């Protein structure tokens, strides 16, 4: 069966709980895993699934995201049905407002659906770390003759209070929604887990248009799919839950559960970065059959310098990105971005370091997140005395120290006069 598929990626998230990492950028543009951005995960999932017609809906602090999309996600112009286009709030409603919710973001861009007439519309968020074969979810949607299919993550019931929970019958048909309720119904045949909504949807186009237009007439609505539109549609639309645990990724161990992380807080963001540097990582970045795509830069290889006692460049159980130089420093259990310079005598343990940072000689860092362009002075000691750290930096309740950097200079062209 040939299907025309149009994708909307909701990438306008403000990411207030990730502050100060979101001081200068939207949440989907936050660096992750050394060389990537959070948004790369959903875009890679779409492209790897054969979906090439993509609109990225942007809003808050979008410049960093726009720059990244320009650097890494511009398709060729030969095939007009293959595109990735960022779309700001169009202000097409009477009040000329910013996006007021996930459903309103789609409503303000209904013209993009109407002019392309897709068979199905996929609406995915841009702020989670995961791999997903979206083609399989669409196949499930078509097999069930569904109007709406929602990606559902089987989750221990003790976390029900943290998620929107889907109630489904034994055939996967959705019969209820429960927003962040500790006593939410468990999965059919599994009394220990609930279906947590992943906020990823497949819609049959006609039903999506009908739902969106009707919701706009409701003055009490917050115009959100999870809170407003889908709960009201239970008795009016064929809705099914797609079990994320049944999703198969080419090149992955079929017995290994799919990886998904909500990186909405600094602690969760830090832990997800730590996941990728493990000996047997839960998230495999080395699967060539399902590559994680991102912007490509002309970086040189990373370099490890000196082979002297107490001055040997080393990185143990760590990820080190291109252009970084480990000049006599020691790194353990850490993730380093591009062009990080680690000077002699440094000791770096369990840190996440963004691009273009310089760690001064003999500095010691533990459980830190360094923003872009941070300069750590010689002999600095950070992450060992939290009372002292709080005088200068943001420190989470779990003791992760977040160090602000500076803006990356923009190179301009010059003219001769």
Automatic annotation (TrEMBL):
One GO molecular function term of this record is:
ATP binding
Q: Reaction(s) catalyzed by this protein?
A: alpha-D-glucose 1-phosphate + ATP + H(+) = ADP-alpha-D-glucose + diphosphate
Record: residues binding alpha-D-glucose 1-phosphate: 99, 164, 179-180, 197
Keyword terms, alphabetized: ATP-binding, Carbohydrate metabolism, Glycogen biosynthesis, Glycogen metabolism, Nucleotide-binding, Nucleotidyltransferase, Transferase
Report the domain of life of the source organism.
Bacteria
Q: Which residues form the Nucleotidyl transferase domain?
A: 7-277
Q: Which family does it belong to?
A: Belongs to the bacterial/plant glucose-1-phosphate adenylyltransferase family.
How does this protein assemble? Homotetramer.
List, alphabetically, the HAMAP family matched: GlgC
Q: What name does UniProt use for this protein? A: Glucose-1-phosphate adenylyltransferase
Gene transcribed to yield this protein = glgC
